[in-house]
Each structure stands twice: as structure tokens, then as C-alpha cells.
Specification:
With 183 residues, the chain is α+β, with helices and mostly antiparallel strands. It contains 4 helices and 9 strands; from the N terminus they run H-H-E-E-E-H-H-E-E-E-E-E-E.
Length: 183
Amino acid sequence: MASDTADGSNRRDFLQIAGYTALGLGVAAAAWPFIHQMNPSADVLALASVDVDVSTVEEGMAITVQWRGKPVFIRHRTQEEIDAARAVALDELRDPATDEERTTSNEGVTRPQWLVQIGICTHLGCVPLGNRVGEPKGDYGGWFCPCHGSHYDTAGRIRKGPAPLNLLLPPYAFLGDTEITIG
């Protein structure tokens, strides 16, 4: 028969508590690798934000950078492109957005000469043409998705074709006059 101590517990109770504690620690130690593998890898964390030097992008030119595996179009717009985007009445647009809304960064800085947008057509996920020299820019001088005929204007707004939305805007901020951080 087990001997009881003064507080009513016995040796068997102690062994049960010690056993359950050891079992719990063992389960936690065995589960740790499985839980840890769900964390994002170093290459994914590195792509969380991208700093882009735009000092070499001349007016009228555009570049494409990668952010989170997606193409991001950065266009240094000419005054004519800015004026054309601002001249469009909002009631003509399928997805109404002013040019100022499309060129305002997350910290509230508006630089109309810089348009930063995700270069994926909102219809079926194609990459529109118009960011490189010689590519068709569509009927509105912006971007053209040849897969299904979506036309975007110089502010990246859908103007013609099956795409339901404007080209999406990533979160971005200006770090200075010539550097943009995306993400």
C-alpha cells in the first residue's frame, strides 16, 4: 500500500506529474521542427520590400522590378502623359480613380511624374505590354494586354477590354528624390 504524506499526496502522484511533464516536453520538442518550417524562408523575407534607385530612369521611360514575385512597373511620366491622365472625366472610367490618387504614395506624398503599379492585368493575370520601348501601349498610351485586349491609360486605369479593375498599386514610399521603397 502506498504511504501518504502529511498533505495527502503520495509517491505515485509525484511520478504521474513528472511523467506528464516529461511527455509534454517531448511532444513540444518533436513538434518544434514542424512548426518552425511554416515560417517564411529568408528569400521570401528579403522580398518583403525592395528599394529601387530611379535616378537613371529618364522622363518617358519605364522600368520593371520584381516585388514578391510580381512585376512592378515604375514609369517616369512626361507632362503630356500626366495631362492626358488628368483630362479624363471620372464618369468615363470603369474603376474610377483620379490621377492624384494613383500617384500618391503610402505616406501621402504625391509625385505625378512617378507611377508605381503592379504589372499584372486584372482580368486573368497576364503581364501587359507597354513598359519597354517599342511595345504597344494600347489606345490610351499606357499599357495593353494582348491576351484579351485590355487597354490601360497613362495612369494605369482600365479604359477598354474585359479587365474589371485598374492596375493595382503596391504599398510604396519615397525615400528621397531618386529612391522608392516598395513593400
